[in-house]
Amino acid sequence: MSTSLKIAAGSILVGLVVLALKTLAWRLTGSVALLSDALESIVNVATAMAALVAIKVAQRPADPGHPYGHHKAEFFSAVLEGVLIISAALLILREAWHAFQNPREIADAGLGMAINASAGVLNAVWCGVLLRQGRRLRSPALVADGKHLLSDVISSAGVLLGVGLAVTTGWAVLDPLLAMLVGVNILWSGWKVMASSLSGLMDEAVPETTLAVIREIISDKASGALEAHDLRTRHAGAVTFIDFHLVVDGQTTVADAHDICDRVEASIMARLPDAQVTIHVEPEHKAKHSGVLVI
After folding, report:
1. pTM score > 0.70 for this model?
2. Where are the domains of the chain?
3. pLDDT digits (tens, 9 = 90+) for 190-214
4. What strands lie across the sheet with 275-283, from one edge to the other?
5. Which has the closest alpha carbon to 176: 227, 117, 105?
6. Strands 239-248 and 225-236, sheet pairing
7. Which CATH architecture has domain 208-293?
8. Strand pairing report for 292-293 and 239-248
9. Which CATH superfamily is domain 3-201 in?
10. N or C: which terminus of the chain has fewer CB atoms within 10 Å of its end residue's CB?
């Protein structure tokens, strides 16, 4: 089992433990704010399962039906996470509105808050693991899961603060008001997860910093060529697809042109290990005098 799959499986286990703790905290207190926190944990478990399936599919090798691989499966997972997060937010807002109309006192607040806090600490630790490893492994599914957990950690801290205020002040209406704020925060988090994933599905180019690295390598390592133009990039999961036209002198042999391409490709893959590079060689009359000039 790959590292990504192990981490995704770990997310399911952590999510189930956190869900159990938060559900217990809600049952002890009857707090609708703590209920909203528990409802979001249900989404955490569902999204962790979706991430596990997506990562497993994304790691399948290319086949005749999918010659570019299955890497975009992780983006679909992240979109599904966004949809589930938004659904949870709407459910939380619904419960908060009912509780706002009929506010009630919070019972066993101390014990319930302590249990909820322990779940929040566990979530915070695992959130750090997901974000760090997801970026290292270049896994959109793990990063999306980590960002979702981060919003959960922040909202859980706000919930604990609000429930504490509701108990100390005796203003029971603070409980549903806080749940509404949690719901709005989760709604925004779900939209951000969906937006970032849709950009991948729409073949958005790599970040400008990565593009600058690619240009620098082409300029430095394509000696013997004249220029490179029509540079295009996109990313799908951990893979970066790069293609461009390389202009060479008309007298350059096929073997020499191939050597230049091999040198450039090897240099790019040394910096971007999961890159897939396609280079189209052209004679000098095809030069556009733009793009990347070779040093």
Report:
1. no
2. 3-201, 208-293
3. 777 677 677 777 778 888 999 999 9
4. 275-283, 239-248, 225-236, 292-293
5. 105
6. antiparallel
7. 2-Layer Sandwich (3.30)
8. unpaired
9. Cation efflux protein transmembrane domain (1.20.1510.10)
10. N
